[in-house]
Design brief:
The complex is a heterotrimer of chains A (129), B (485) and C (462). Chain B is built from 16 helices and 13 strands. Chain B is globular and about 75 Å long. Chain C has 462 residues and is an alpha/beta fold. Chain C has 2 domains: 116 residues, Aspartate Aminotransferase, domain 1; 264 residues, Aspartate Aminotransferase, domain 2. In chain C, the strands form 4 sheets. In chain C, strands 2-8-7-6-5-3-4 form a 7-stranded mixed β-sheet, sandwiched between helices. Chain C has a 4-stranded antiparallel β-sheet with strand order 11-12-15-14, with helices on one face. In chain C, a hairpin with a 5-residue loop joins strand 9 and strand 10. In chain C, helix 6 crosses helix 7 and helix 11 packs across helix 13. The longest helix of chain C is centred in the last third of the chain and has 37 residues. The chains are: A alpha+beta (129), B alpha/beta (485), C alpha/beta (462).
Chain lengths: 129, 485, 462
């Protein structure tokens, strides 16, 4: 069973969003997504200062035999990326919602389009059928 | 042990080319090598023994049944190698003028003609060095054709979701966007989905027929009509030509451009990963764009077709003549087949695949497309086995190695969960196929009763299962002095 | 002769198992309208018939005394190389997808990668590309991906680079909006005109291509070119002949910090001329660019017991996983040729490669000295050269080559087809395979053609 914290927002493409309350959000990939890919071996992070629209490609996560694009779940500007993942991509396997965060984004829009934990759980349940 | 660890300075006196003492170079010091590179210094015997022993750690067609789906691992006749290595053939320099000997060019011209006839196309270029380069050339020709017609809005190539990964990658190399077309539950292209995305932006569609799902695309004529009416062209990926050689021709199906994989259908060696050879064929309207060089014949002499004779060509793909020595092997093979042999290949590769599919079905394995005729290959899915026994396709594949069988293609096509793509080829005996069925039955039993035996496999090979996560995370792609091996 | 083993009994039994009446029934899903007519191809030959035919064809091409190079070089190939390479276990295996059943090929490829990094002075190597020219095209694509400082997709390419390499790069990379700008050679030296290169200072350039030796055999000012590239935030792509690296400096040591990407044609390393293929392209680079490198790469790892083993690695860059977003569409490479090249480098070692390279250098220099003894025959460029040089004749190069060809001597390659300014010029090469008798034969026929005194080629000066 995947871990889907109730305080976070989600995108259909398996990214999560935490509202940091100061106009910024932290994003990452969901526990379900990392478990589907398996042991991660490389993460291409978004570029700092990049302006992203919703669903823009903003990075890549790779395991040995699969690779998946990351799509920006929100609109905004990248203000910080998690450099730890350059050398230790497995951090996402170990702690997808904590130390395995991917980027912090200064919002230019809102979060109303995102999924709640309940709605995302339904999607995950359907996919793992 | 690596060859480097057997190296001792001064071991080999270089009888092979003789030694040179005290060389003087009229080249300024700054351009000369500072120290030796560090190639091994071993005796000829050490090298021969080392690589002979390494070869024995391989599975190969000559030593093992190798039903690797979509790769056509059939017998590579020894005559093709021996004859392609005749001194007059191996010593010919690529810039030898045609008037100093026409033997090679005659062979290539014959090969062009045979391939043209068996594919039903208007012309063939042998230039592409492999299937993927043939794909690139094919899509580049589609682009050149649209450009020549000032039809520059066409920016999309359609690719079924079951296609080889090279198809979308080649389309992108030619600057196109890729749109995937879904497959229906019977394994055919979803025609309604196709119709809904075809339009003035469609440059073409890339299809493999028989498809990678091991079935013949039955609606091919309708697909051709839909794409052509929208102004797009049809690209044929020849990876599976073995199944229909001499039976159906891509040209007659309506394809405008094709590539062949000679290392598959025409039995040139797979060589541990190449060389391949990927000739392309075209319909009349794409002839002006074929890649160079090609061979022409005026009734007396063979000559080269270069950019001078064909200024609208998409150009050159390799410095000389693609993989000429591989083309030569394909030529020798094709000459041995002749018209009667070509159709027999399709017949017997299909017979072997359908026989094996029936036997495995009877043995309780689940077929991905049970109600379809197999072509030269078919798909088994181990989805239920994985769910109920916790033994997945990779485990099955590794256990097969213990039984002396190379595993079929695993986890491709991506559409079918836990799949094995099995292609026995026409050169295998019925007994070999029967033995393979017994092996799979045994492994299925093991999966049920002693699953660890399967999930920990292989047990009898030079190494056990390798840590491929470590291979990426702790990347080591070249040996350093002192490193343990 | 399709090598099908089925007996009549087998066929009957198999059809019965499947539940069809005859083999044709297996094709019942193919629309009748598509079945093909009888093929207009001759009947198949038996093995003894094809042996006859191929001997005739091979004899037609004869065995020319070869003084041509231009990207394909006749070097001695020790007998052991192809004896071992064509063992069935190498010859008839495929891409090592099942690593445990392919440790032979995988370890060999790892050794190849190691040898290439050592020859070129780079950190990493892939397991081969198709040939030198297509390897350069891939290197160019790679440099555009890797050079994040550059947005221009402009590549500077010297005209002293092999014209067919320039043509191939053009075919392959211009489809992706990359532009090539020619840098002319200096007509006095036949090497890149540094002033013309430096005129691009301050421009946004993705990479500079640096051939060594260049198409004319000349030694390029590689150190200055690499430094200039880096000062201008461009990557330096070296195109080298691996045989020359027995004598010439490794690209990793060029200039202040070395080339970034090195590619070239591996044919000199034990691969026969064979009309231009199959050869092997190689591609090496500095560690920081490894993720942008196309093609198969082998990595060392351990098995469940901690025992070392080899496997394909960094596969997520490749087409079978990344599909439309792969670094390249390449799938098969030149495995069999790599096998030969690896065994060649093992048997020859540093000393052997150096010896073959040095003898090629010496033979070509001796040939050039003798040729230019003939009045009216002269070298065109004054730069140092490796094992090829451009010679100007007093009259038509085409006629010269035809006359020499009549004596079964491939006396060089006419350059006018690519360089109109090099009228009456030939590119010549004499590798270690040529002995004194061969050189004398060349000179005696050449001397007769230009009416030079027969003895001239035997004296150092006239």
């Amino acid at each position: 069973m995947s871990n889907i914290p109730s305080e976070l927002y989600y995108a259909k493409s398996h990214e999560w969003v935490r509202d940091d309350g100061d106009g910024n959000v932290t994003i990452g990939v969901s526990d379900y997504a990392q478990s589907q890919l398996g042991d991660l071996v490389f993460i291409e992070l978004p570029e700092v200062d990049a302006d992203l629209a919703i669903k823009d490609e903003c990075g890549v996560i790779e395991s040995v035999k699969a690779a998946s694009d990351m799509y920006s779940p929100v609109a905004g500007t990248v203000i910080e990326v998690n450099e730890v993942l350059n050398d230790a991509p497995e951090t996402v396997n170990d702690d997808a919602y904590g130390d395995g965060w991917v980027a912090k984004i200064k919002l230019s829009g809102d979060l109303s389009h995102l999924l709640s934990a309940d709605n995302y759980t339904a999607i995950v349940d359907a996919e793992s059928e | 042990m690596l060859i480097f660890e057997q190296s001792r300075l001064g071991r080999n006196p270089k009888h092979q080319v003789g030694a040179v003492e005290g060389a003087n170079y009229e080249i300024p010091e700054e351009f000369l090598r500072k120290q030796p590179a560090g190639l091994p210094d071993v005796s000829e015997l050490q090298a021969v023994r080392h690589y002979t022993l390494l070869s024995q750690k391989n599975f190969s067609i000559d030593t093992h049944f190798y039903p690797l789906g979509s790769c056509t691992m059939k017998y590579n006749p020894r005559a093709c190698n021996t004859l392609a290595n005749l001194p007059g053939i191996t010593s010919r320099h690529p810039f030898t003028p045609p008037d100093m000997g026409q033997g090679f060019m005659a062979c290539m011209y014959d090969l062009q003609n045979m391939l043209r006839e068996v594919t039903g196309m208007s012309a063939i270029s042998l230039a592409p060095a492999a299937g993927a380069q043939g794909e690139f050339a094919g899509v580049a020709m589609i682009r050149a054709y649209h450009d020549a017609n000032n039809d520059t809005e066409r920016c999309e190539i359609l690719v079924p979701d079951a296609a080889h990964g090279t198809n979308p990658a080649s389309a992108v190399m030619c600057g196109y966007k890729v749109k995937e077309i879904p497959t229906n539950s019977e394994g055919d292209v979803d025609l309604d989905a196709l119709k809904s995305v075809v339009g003035p932006q469609t440059a073409g569609i890339m299809l493999t027929n028989p498809s990678t799902l091991g079935v013949f695309e039955r609606q091919i004529e309708e697909i051709a009509r839909v794409v052509h009416e929208a102004g797009g062209l049809l690209y044929y990926d020849g990876a599976n030509l073995n199944a229909i050689l001499g039976k159906v021709r891509p040209g007659d199906m309506g394809f405008d451009v094709i590539h062949l994989n000679l290392h598959k259908t025409f039995s040139t060696p797979h060589g541990g990963g190449g060389p391949g050879a990927g000739p392309v064929g075209v319909s009349e309207r794409l002839k002006p764009y074929l890649p160079i060089p090609m061979v022409a014949y005026d009734g007396d002499d063979y000559s080269w077709v270069t950019e001078k004779e064909l200024p609208t060509t998409i150009g050159r793909l390799s410095a000389f003549m693609g993989n000429a020595s591989i083309l030569m092997r394909a030529y020798i093979y094709a000459k041995m087949l002749g018209n009667d042999g070509m159709a027999r290949i399709a017949e017997f590769s299909t017979l072997n695949a359908n026989y094996l599919m029936t036997r495995l079905d009877e043995a309780g394995f689940e077929m991905a497309f049970k109600n379809r005729r197999a072509t030269h290959e078919f798909i088994v899915t181990l989805k239920q086995v994985a769910k109920t026994m916790g033994v997945n396709t990779m485990d099955f594949a590794k256990r097969m190695l213990d039984y002396g069988v190379h595993a079929p293609t695993t986890y491709f096509p991506l559409l079918i969960a836990e799949c094995l793509l099995i292609e026995p080829t026409e050169t295998e005996t019925r007994e070999t196929l029967d033995d393979f069925v017994e092996v799979l039955k045994k492994i299925l039993k093991e999966a049920e009763h002693t699953p660890d035996l399967v999930t920990q496999a292989p047990h009898t090979l030079p190494v056990k299962r390798l840590d491929d996560v470590r291979a990426v995370r702790q990347l080591d792609v070249a040996w350093k002095e002192g490193e343990e091996s | 002769m399709p090598f099908i083993p089925h007996t009549t009994d087998d066929i009957e039994h198999m059809l019965k198992t499947i539940g069809v009446a005859d083999i044709n029934a297996l094709f019942d899903e193919i629309p009748e309208s598509l079945r093909c007519p009888p093929l207009d191809i001759a009947a198949g030959l038996s093995e003894q018939e094809i042996v006859r035919l191929m001997h005739e064809r091979a004899n037609e091409d004869g065995q020319t005394l070869n003084f041509a190079g231009a990207g394909a070089y006749e070097h001695h190939i020790p007998a052991a190389i192809w004896e071992v390479t064509t063992r069935g276990e190498f010859y008839s295996a495929y891409t090592p997808y099942q690593a445990e059943a392919s440790q032979g090929t995988l370890q060999l490829l790892y050794e190849f990668q190691t040898m290439m990094t050592r020859l070129t002075g780079m950190d990493v190597s892939n397991a081969s590309l198709y040939d030198g020219a297509s390897a350069l095209a891939e290197a160019v694509l790679m440099s555009v991906r890797a050079n994040r400082k550059s947005k221009s997709k402009v590549i500077l390419m010297p005209t002293s680079l092999h014209p067919h390499y320039r043509a191939v790069v053009k075919t392959i990379v211009t489809q992706q909006g990359i532009t090539m700008q020619d840098i002319d050679y200096d007509p006095a030296t036949g090497t890149t005109d540094l002033d013309k290169l430096m005129a691009h200072a301050g421009e946004d350039i993705a990479a500079v291509v640096i051939p060594q030796p260049n198409f004319f055999g000349g030694i390029e000012p590689v150190n200055e070119m690499v430094n200039w590239a880096h000062e201008n935030k461009a990557l330096a792509i070296a195109v080298v002949n691996p045989m020359s690296l027995g004598v010439l400096n490794a690209p990793g040591d060029w200039g202040q910090t070395g080339a970034d990407i090195v590619c070239g044609e591996g044919q000199p390393l034990g691969i026969p001329l064979a009309s231009g293929g199959a050869y092997l392209g190689f591609l090496c680079c500095q560690q920081s660019y490894v993720r942008q490198m196309p093609g198969r790469i082998i990595g060392k790892t351990v098995d469940l017991d901690g025992k070392p083993g080899y496997t394909l690695t960094l596969q997520a860059r490749e087409q079978h996983i990344r599909r439309s977003k792969a670094t390249s569409n390449i799938c098969t490479n030149q495995g069999l040729m790599v096998t030969a090249a690896t065994i060649y480098m093992s048997i020859m070692g540093d000393a052997g490669v150096n010896s073959a390279a040095t003898q090629s250098y010496q033979n070509t220099h001796q040939l050039v000295a003798s040729m230019t003894d003939i009045p009216g025959v002269e070298r065109v460029f004054d730069s140092p050269f490796f094992h090829e040089a451009v010679i100007k004749l007093p009259s038509s190069a085409a006629r010269y080559l035809r006359s020499m060809g009549a004596h079964n001597i491939l006396a060089g390659i006419s350059l006018e087809q690519w360089y109109p300014e090099l009228k009456d010029c030939v590119l010549v090469c004499a590798t270690e395979t040529k002995n004194q008798a061969d050189l004398e034969k060349y000179m005696s026929h050449m001397g007769r053609l230009f009416d030079a005194p027969l003895a001239c080629q035997l004296r150092p000066s006239f």
